[in-house]
Amino acid sequence: MAKICPVCEATRAPLLGLLQHAKDGPICPGCYQLSPKMESIQTLKQFWEINENRRKKFVQTLSIEGLASKVIIDGQNRLFYFVTDGKAGNNRYSFSEITGY
């Protein structure tokens, strides 16, 4: 029987050793990356929904390369994400979430 992540409802068995834990239960590693601060499953579901909506509307308008990573930007929707070692991060961030640089 495949385990199901209570946040994203993924059933990918190899990823779902459910090694990571939210405040109130096990979650898949991908959902843990959304917020590794021991949030509740309900809070993580809200984060997941926001992130999925951002992923769906994301349209790359710019790319900035640095020494170790790249930033992919959607200027129209004011979103961005990081690519490190050739792997795109799961999270899409809003410009409004930047608190310093």
Question: What characteristics describe this protein?
Answer:
101 residues, alpha+beta, 2 domains, 5-stranded antiparallel sheet, 7 strands
Quick gist of this model?
The chain contains two helices and seven strands; from the N terminus they run E-E-H-H-E-E-E-E-E. It is of the alpha+beta class and 101 residues long. The longest helix has 17 residues, at 41-57.
Low-confidence stretches: none
Task: Find the count of extended strands (DSSP E, 2+ residues).
Answer: 7
Mean pLDDT: 82
Structural class: alpha+beta
Topology as H/E string? EEHHEEEEE
Instruction: Estimate nothing, just give the exact number of structural domains.
Output: 2
**How much helical structure, as a percent, in the residues?**
10-25%
Termini separation (Å)? 46 Å
Compute the number of helices: 2
Q: Characterize the biggest β-sheet.
A: 5 strands, antiparallel
What is the alpha-carbon Rg in Å?
Answer: 15 Å
Shape: elongated
Strand content: 25-35%
Describe this structure in words.
This protein folds into 2 domains: 13-56, no CATH class; 59-97, no CATH class. The protein starts with 19 loop residues before the first strand and ends in a 7-residue tail after the last strand. The strands form 2 sheets. Strands 3, 4, 5, 6 and 7 form a 5-stranded antiparallel sheet that branches. Helix content is 23%, strand content 26%. The protein has helices spanning 29-34, 41-57; strands at residues 20-22, 25-27, 62-65, 69-74, 79-84, 87-88, 93-94. The mean pLDDT is 82. 16% of the residues are buried. With 101 residues, the protein is an alpha+beta fold. It is built from 2 helices and 7 strands.
